[in-house]
Write a structure and sequence with these properties.
The chain has about 270 residues and is an alpha/beta fold. It has a single domain, classed as Alpha-Beta Barrel (TIM Barrel), CATH 3.20.20.70. Helix content is about 30%, strand content about 20%. The chain has eight helices and 13 strands. The protein has a seven-stranded parallel β-sheet. A four-stranded antiparallel β-sheet has the order 2-3-11-10, with no helix packed on it. The structure holds flavin mononucleotide.
């Protein structure tokens, strides 16, 4: 399950059994609680969806006390990767330091596609020096693998991926959402989403993600988690053909929670 689309696993218990899948990438975790953006936070359009959840989460302390213990009891087959987010580079290390001691966590996925408030809202991944500092600080507090999650809108995703690997990331997740905007009732100017702009996910991302994976695998040879627009076994195979080591599914599971399990079963049953 892709970050932010399955909570911390507990939210989807009874709907999707993460133990039938490879695992779960959790919702973003920040040092302090985040209330997120005003509603509505998600909207559908023909062929895809747009969201502005705003990385709402209860903060690392509450996650450590309430969500990780549930995962420790429940995730006997599923691997758990914690998605980490922050307002400034040091926030990532703060979250990771608090969660480092939990054996149930296999790796940390760093969402570096969000705004760096210390740098006027520039995306962390857009600045090589900031990205290097962020990863180096995170690496200083954990022995677990770090995975940098990048947006496909970067000018050269393979170059940014190389910077992340050189700084100590063990892998790359590709892709995060692409920015977009929809009006509620044109020609009135009211937006569909409370915040106005949001991130596009679902089928429009499929070829975008596959190209990004192909470029990054060729340029770095690093392990890549392929994400974006997967709705079927054949979509998943596209990512594997591009060189992905793992895949994650988000939007498709929101529409049909059976999809991840169906794909995983077919993969498990292949000859
Ligand atoms: C409702 C929603 C919430 C998301 N929250 C996060 C998040 O917390 N952290 C993150 O790195 N990506 C987040 N994403 C992006 C997804 O993990 C994924 O990269 C993207 O949706 C593309 O995959 P998909 O087309 O299968 O949904 C979110 C996406 C959606 C739709």
């Amino acid at each position: 399950m892709a970050a932010g689309t399955a909570g911390f696993g507990r939210e989807i218990e009874g709907v999707i059994d993460i133990n039938l899948l490879g695992g779960i990438i959790t919702k973003a975790v920040s040092p302090n609680p985040r209330v997120g953006n005003p509603s509505p936070r998600v909207a559908e359009f023909h062929g895809g969806m747009i969201n502005s959840v705003g990385l709402a989460n209860p903060g690392v302390q509450v996650v450590a006390e309430r969500e990780i213990p549930w995962l420790e009891d429940y995730a006997h087959h599923a691997r758990v990767i914690v998605n980490v987010v922050g307002d400034e580079p040091g926030d990532y290390a703060k979250v990771i330091a608090q969660l480092e001691g939990y054996d149930v966590i296999s790796a940390f996925e760093l969402n570096v596609s969000c705004p760096n408030t210390a740098k006027g809202g520039e995306e962390f991944g857009a600045n090589d020096a900031v990205l290097t500092e962020l990863i180096a600080r995170a690496k200083g507090v954990t022995a677990k693998p770090l995975i940098a999650k990048l947006a496909p809108t970067l000018p050269s995703i393979e170059r940014t991926a190389s910077v992340a690997i050189a700084a100590g990331a063990r892998g790359i997740s590709l892709v995060n959402t692409i920015p977009g905007f929809l009006y509620a009732d044109p020609p009135n100017e009211r937006p569909r989403l409370g915040r106005g702009r949001g991130g596009i996910s679902g089928p429009p991302l499929l070829p975008v993600g596959i190209l990004a994976v192909r470029k990054v695998v060729r340029a770095t040879g690093a392990p890549v988690i392929g994400i974006g627009g997967i709705r079927s076994y054949d979509d998943m195979r596209q990512y594997l053909a591009a060189g992905a080591s793992l895949v994650a599914i988000g939007t498709a599971a929101l529409a049909n929670p059976r999809i991840p399990e169906t794909i995983a079963r077919r993969w498990g049953a292949r000859g």
